[in-house]
Amino acid sequence: MESPSATAEQLAPNTYYITVSGSGTPECDGLYVPSMAPADVVSESGTKSNPGYWNGRFAWDRADGKAALRNGKPNPSLSFSNTYKAWRIARLDGHLAYTILTDTNLPPTDTPWDVYRKGEAPAPTIVLHHQDPRPRVVFVLGGPGAGKGTMCELAQQQLGWGHLSAGDLLRAERSRGGEKADLINSIIVAGKIVPSEITCGLLWTEIRRMCGTTTSFLVDGFPRNQENVDAWEAVVGRAASVRFMLFFECPLPVLEARILGRAEYSGRKDDNVESLRLRFNTYKNETMPIVNLFREKKQCIEVDSSLGREAVYALVKESLSEMTDPTCLEAPLTERSECLLGLRAWPKRAPKT
User: Which domain, by its residues, includes 247?
Assistant: First the structure.
């Protein structure tokens, strides 16, 4: 690999990711993502940075976004020093913990690093990833009754995607007496809304737990407002890769008909026209600005969910196809999937004794 050019237009994007592990300074361990240092920052050697680069070479930030400024500048946490001809890893406070004297174009992964002034032995192991190893997340939004839950369950059943619902996770945490159960209960009893940081923490914990079985996740009904967006950035940041938003668009009359149709068997107290209209107004006032935010970033895929379930699922399947195992795309429908699509009657429940 040739040394990157200093001309921004000619710089290839930094598509590498790095895992640091096993260091004597545990705060240095974790995932490092391509640096987003702005283009107008000047390093100690007088070289202007570019996104993904520092001192004319690839550079990386901590994925959790916790690193402090170094010398008052947004220096990457893992970068090359032109002055010392060395790759360096910084602590959270910006002080250098590990270094390796070499003029290679990428951080060495097969040579021991040295413990620097603010580091503790042992030096870490460095793994260079040629593809993004982060969990892939797709947010799913739409009005009440738009079919979000059904389509997310189909993607879970057929395509191998993880399906997470913030509301379900909060209820599960309360019912099993989880770590934050008492806090969540006290907030709800007081008639207050559970802080978004708690919700995002539960989502992120569940994503990491499920990463052994899947790396692609649909987050159902999230983010609902700007507070959710801000909390996700604070709790998860760049540790997960948010690819886009799936937005299920459906006219209010269709939503009303669906809600009334499911009210007969859902048992939900809010499945009535009055509650629906209140929820729909909240959705328009708080959630639509978030949808528009993703539209502006060209990260919103819109699905007409007023169509039949098979047609909607076909659109969802196509939207997720690039991140789905090809064998899952070709797999026949399971019995449950056929029921969800209305192609088969649901099995009759055994009578209670």
Answer: 136-323+334-340
Task: Give the chain's domain count.
Answer: 2
Above pLDDT 70, what percent of the chain? 92
Nearest Cα residue to 194 out of 208, 203, 204, 183: 183
Share of the chain above pLDDT 90, in %: 66
Q: Are 109 and 89 in contact (CB under 8 A)?
A: no
Question: Of 107, 129, 151, which residue sits at a domain end?
Answer: 129
What single DSSP character describes residue 238?
G
The answer, yes or no, to whether residue 318 has pLDDT greater than 50, is yes
Q: Where are the alpha helices (DSSP H) in the chain?
A: 148-159, 166-175, 181-189, 196-210, 226-235, 252-266, 273-282, 288-296, 309-320, 326-330, 335-340
Is 225 found in the same domain as 91? no
Residues 220 and 280 in one domain: yes
Q: Which two tokens stand for residue 34?
A: 């391509």
pLDDT in tens, 1-39: 334 444 444 679 999 999 999 999 999 999 999 998 777
Q: What is the pLDDT of residues 209-229, one digit of tens each?
A: 999 899 999 999 999 999 999
Cβ proximity of 131 and 300 under 8 Å: no
**How many angstroms from the chain centroid is the CA of residue 243?**
8
- Amino acid type, 219: V
Residue 267 has what pLDDT?
63
Query: Domain check: are 123 and 140 in the same one?
Result: no
Q: Are residues 77 and 24 in the same domain?
A: yes
